[in-house]
Amino acid sequence: MIRFLGSVCIFSGGLMTVLLQLRERRRTRTALAELLSALRRMGEEVRLCRTPLPRLLQTLSASCSGDAAAFFSAVGDALRHGEVAETLWREQTCCLPLPVAAQQALSEVGSALHGDEENVCKALSLAILELEKCAVEWDKQRPETEKRTAALWLSGAALLVILLI
User: Fold this and answer.
1) What is the pLDDT of residue 87?
2) DSSP assignment letter at 54
3) For the chain, how big is the Rg over CA atoms in Å?
């Protein structure tokens, strides 16, 4: 009976790990989609409406959800308190659950925030292109990665169960 309960616990642990990793991958994909949408809106606002950055970031944080909302909210709050936009943007970018290439592209936007409209729009366009590439690559690799993850964890758990019995 104890071996059976141990086997169930081990297999449940493997299954929970698979589910947690799938949830983390969904979180990354959702963050990519939210940031892409927000950066597009940010480019339009800068180009067409010339909205001041703190108000723009507040609007973006209200219209986003999850990690993207927290990102824009933190940067906007710090700007209202007089902190430097570039360093704060880069710091907050590191906290996002994004692939490395997407984090680098997004952090480059921070250095252009204090520039003129043309530089800001150019940096936003470059970041949007890089995030789109990351999103396409992420979607392309998703089925294979999920299969490998599930196979690895579940077969490892099954092996431990076999060894336990």
Assistant:
1) 83
2) H
3) 21
